[in-house]
Design brief:
The complex is a heterodimer.
Chain A (H helix, E strand, L loop, with lengths): L3 H10 L6 E5 L3 E6 L4 H8 L5 E10 H4 L1 E10 L4 E9 L4 E3 L9 H11 L2 E3 L26 H6 L5 H13 L50 E5 L11 E7 L2 E8 L7 H5 L7 H6 L6 H16 L5 H29 L4 H21 L8 E2 L2 E2 L5 H26 L2 H7 L7 H6 L4 H6 L6 H4 L20 H25 L18 E9 L2 E9 L5 E7 L1 H12 L5 H10 L4 H5 L1
Parallel strand pairs in A: 2-5, 6-7
Antiparallel strand pairs in A: 1-2, 3-4, 4-5, 8-9, 9-10, 11-12, 13-14, 14-15
Chain B lengths: L2 H5 L9 H9 L4 E3 L6 H10 L11 E3 L7 E5 L4 H13 L5 E5 H6 L21 E3 L6 H24 L1
Parallel strand pairs in B: 1-2, 3-4, 4-5
Helix pairs in contact in B: 2-6
The chains are: A alpha+beta, B alpha/beta.
Chain lengths: 579, 162
């Protein structure tokens, strides 16, 4: 535990006077500071907290005429979090903390565009998710559409889209000439800073070639990879500056799947949230539902029956397996191995049958709800799981033989796409990306939720941080999932599968953050409740947004063919990156 | 349909070239590997997998729009993506077909209230087949493809009868 005295001492040394520093409800230790002290505070706390886990804004204009930005810092050694809150006037400028924590690169842009703030000191202050003509969506004053308005909505004309396409070829290299012109800014979509920054627009830490033309052997060219590319695993767009086959600099563009899950969540009841977040992380839905359910339960003080917790753990692990198969197979496909893709899909269908038997759906389960789960597990599903468990371990050995035992694959994977431990920590990587780089951290073990404290499993940590390490870590995760499912079947307690709850769930006023170890890393749900039956604000921490920044850092210097294998090994899910 | 069973073995068949091309076209519908969101797991990935095996109908994925006959719009299209969807459609060689898969591509789905979302991909490009569901099962997509094949044959017939 990190004591408040220790933090006060650190702040005193940096001559920062906090507004308050105290335990606040479910959030734990909260430090409130003025905006002017923000950078000094982060500098002072940097050495004690390794990671900036998340950054979110909230519109408190009605309450105290301010936009509240919340930072969550984590000390892995002490296993403790510190929440830092600053309040800004509407339209004010947020100083960027990327000098202290690189993981703020993308989330800061998102927070500023969503709440209409300006951003200063950021190396690349573009809009992240929204496109032209869309107001800051998460402000409470901006309404969503009614059903009739949605049906009547029209798109910009064809001419407009043609001009936008021309602009598409330009982006990533040159800033638009006129930042106020919406046509030029279609994909830049304007600037968050008052003025476009000087110099080339590349993310920090990315090497830029010298300006001396004699030093260059070939002309550089811009290669747009994606959004339609079979190996980007979704609608990722990477603008790569290429020198022959080698990537010199790169920049990721996201937002092609932005569909307002956080905004729509403010208009859904607590019971209905699972429907939205399922479509966020669409490969591992049960884990996300679990994060939402746990946070609502924490706020409302709901006691979950023992059996429900065990079923939740079992379903989360089955879903983790199904999700990992959809990563393991295609990552073989990325490196040219077709067979493993079909093997993995075969195994995935077996687990999907189980999920379908229990939840009624192959995807989008809507199964884990506040209070428990929707339906009990059936005897038939138990028999199905038993059957699969008999062969699953040896099937994993076969998959290993089919892909990873091949020397060709090993040459592609070993020593390629290396993420150092410092980068992984500083960029906020969690889950298997961090573990492959030597960060010994698993929320299931270190902060057990549901019934994970009763399970016996190991956490695999590698230290090389390359593609091979990520493959090995995740393959071991699959074996551990099988172990956990076996324990769940053996030790499943009797009892109810859900708590008795009122039909309309009202949650007392408050704020909480509950993380779970989803299939791709730390998936956290931060809810502001105002005492009604709908959340005032729901933030959903996307683990792959942070691993996307990590991946972006590894690309320069790689061959294009290796870059595809590297991107595949991070297992992005664009539903959750763009939300 | 095997021709042998209709006309007998070792027969010589005379037909208009256009008729032959339309027959062949309906039996090798290659779709573009272009998954936008959740639906792509069911309609593109599971479809290519061993359980559903669309390959036996001559339906398989290609990585490039230039090689594809069918575009499955599998997911929510937003304002940013609309430009790219339109561009990809224009890159496909004719005759080209579009399958709008799932509630989002049909009409915006659960996200239609959000102003960034395009309510229906048919506002950008012409759509041949709509598949309902959120997400539709691979069987539905298979049925959609069979309907598309029927549509191609019917259109050919109507053109020849004229």
């Amino acid at each position: 535990m990190i004591s408040s005295d220790y933090i006060t001492k650190l702040l005193h040394k940096a001559s920062v006077a906090p507004i308050s520093l105290e335990e606040e409800g479910h959030l734990g230790l909260v430090l409130r500071i003025e905006v002017d002290d923000l950078l000094a505070t982060f500098k002072a706390l940097r050495s004690s907290f390794e990671q900036l886990i998340d950054l979110l804004g909230a519109d408190l204009l009605e309450r105290d005429n301010s936009i509240e930005i919340t930072y969550r810092l984590r000390s892995l050694g002490e296993n403790d979090d510190l929440v830092i809150k600053v309040k800004l006037a509407p339209g004010a400028t947020l100083p960027s903390v990327t000098d202290s924590y690189l993981s703020a690169l993308l989330p800061e842009r998102e927070a500023c565009e969503m709440f209409g703030l300006k951003l200063s000191g950021h190396p690349n202050p573009k809009y992240l998710l929204l496109s032209e003509g869309i107001p800051p969506m998460l402000l409470k004053s901006v309404p969503i559409r009614s059903h009739e308005e949605a049906q009547a909505a029209e798109l910009p004309s064809d001419d407009l889209s043609l001009q936008m396409l021309n602009d598409l070829n330009e982006r990533g290299i040159e800033p638009p000439e006129d930042p106020d012109d919406p046509l030029q800014n279609y994909l830049f979509a304007g600037w968050l800073s008052p003025e476009p920054p000087e110099g080339p627009l590349v993310p920090r830490n990315i090497r830029r070639v010298s300006d001396n033309p004699e030093a260059l052997a070939t002309d550089h060219y811009l290669l747009q990879m994606g959004p339609q590319h079979p190996s980007t695993h979704g609608v990722l767009n990477v603008a790569c500056e290429m020198d022959g086959e080698t990537i010199i600099s790169s920049e990721v563009h996201v937002g092609n799947l932005h569909r307002g899950i956080e905004k729509l969540a403010e208009n859904r009841r607590y019971n209905q949230l699972a429907t939205l977040v399922d479509r966020g992380d669409y490969v591992g839905g049960c884990n996300t539902e679990l994060a939402v359910a746990l946070s609502v339960e924490q706020l409302a003080g709901i006691e979950v029956p023992e059996r429900a917790s065990w079923i939740r753990v079992m379903m989360a692990e089955i879903n983790r397996l199904a999700s990992h198969y959809i990563w393991f197979g295609p990552s073989g496909l990325d490196s040219g191995a077709m067979g493993i893709f079909l093997f993995c899909l075969y195994d995935r269908e077996l687990w999907l049958d189980v999920l379908e038997e229990i939840t009624g759906q192959r995807m989008m389960f809507n199964y884990v709800r506040p209070g428990g789960v929707v339906a009990d597990i059936t005897p038939r599903s138990i028999a199905m799981i038993e059957d699969i468990l008999k062969i699953a371990d040896s099937r994993l050995d076969e998959h290993y033989e089919a892909l990873m035992a091949s020397e060709i694959y090993q040459q592609r994977a070993c020593g390629v796409g290396v993420v150092s431990k410092e980068d992984a920590l500083s960029l906020g990587a969690t889950g298997f990306v961090a573990r492959a780089s030597g960060v010994d951290w698993d929320l299931r073990r270190d902060r057990p939720y549901a019934a994970y404290d009763k399970m016996d499993f190991d956490v695999m940590v590698a230290d090389t941080g390359d593609i091979w390490a990520r493959m090995v870590c995740r393959l071991d995760e699959m074996r551990q999932s099988l172990r956990i499912i076996r324990q769940c079947l053996d030790g499943m307690p009797k009892g109810d599968f859900t708590a008795k709850l009122p039909r309309v769930l009202r949650v007392p006023e408050g704020e909480c953050y509950v993380p779970v170890e989803s299939t791709r890393g730390e998936m956290g749900v931060h809810i502001y409740s105002d005492g009604t039956d709908k959340p005032y604000r729901m933030r959903y921490r996307p683990p792959t947004l942070y691993s996307l920044m990590t991946a972006d850092l590894t690309l320069p210097g790689l061959f294009l063919a290796d870059a595809i294998v590297t991107l595949g090994s991070f297992d992005f899910c664009f539903g959750e990156i763009d939300r | 349909m095997a021709l042998d069973s209709v006309v007998g073995e070792n027969s010589i068949v005379f037909l208009k070239s256009e008729q032959f091309f339309d027959w062949a076209r309906g039996r090798s519908l290659w779709y573009m590997a272009f998954g936008i969101a959740c639906c792509s797991l069911e309609g593109l990935i599971a479809a290519a997998g061993p359980r559903f095996d669309f390959d036996r109908h001559g339906i398989f994925y290609r990585g490039v729009p230039r090689h594809s006959d069918v575009m499955i719009v599998a997911g929510t299209v937003n304002r940013k993506m609309a430009v790219i969807v339109k561009r990809l459609y224009e890159m496909m060689p004719e005759p080209r077909y579009v399958i709008s898969m799932g509630a989002c591509a049909n009409a915006g789905g659960p996200f239609r209230e959000y102003p960034n979302v395009v309510t229906g991909v048919d506002k950008i490009i012409p759509v041949d087949i709509y598949i309902p569901g959120c997400p539709p099962r691979p069987e539905s997509v298979q049925y959609g493809f069979l309907q598309l094949r029927k549509k191609i044959n019917d259109e050919a017939k109507a053109r020849l009868d004229k």
